[in-house]
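Database export, one record per block. Field names are fixed; values are copied verbatim from the stored entry.
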Amino acid sequence: MAEALPDPLIAYLEKRQADRAERVHALLASLTKRERALLQDTAVMGYVRGSLHPRDEEIPLNKEIVAEVVSACFAFPDLYPAVNAAYEEQRQTVEYFVQGQQPDGTWEQASSTTADPEFAIQRLAARRRAQPEFGYRIARRTTTVLVEAQQTEEADHA
């Protein structure tokens, strides 16, 4: 007969499980509706594809798995609508800027933004030369804009 785990170990494992559940909740709450839908679509298809994978075959590399899962989602657009969503407009901008480290360890923007990463590197070098006692780094901000039509109640009754 197997011995029971000691109470402190059980308490530790339960706390770890609760902490993980809180981290999952926090992550999902931080995502946009679109990001949650994409994560759900691909996670479900990944689970389905994984459960079908033959046990005696080698598991492919991550990028091959991602490509296979997304391709499988494309094959079933009604089941995976977030992956198959069509948008009226999609655009993405990437900006680079220098950040300076504050005494409390946080980072604040210390320059204007530029789309040219080489120019951001030059700005960083200039900051470091001018103030070598401070910490500086380059940050990248990516903004994605998706425009999708929303049905209004008036349009539904027209």
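Remark 1: The radius of gyration is 24 Å.
Remark 2: The first strand starts at residue 89 and ends at 101.
End of record.
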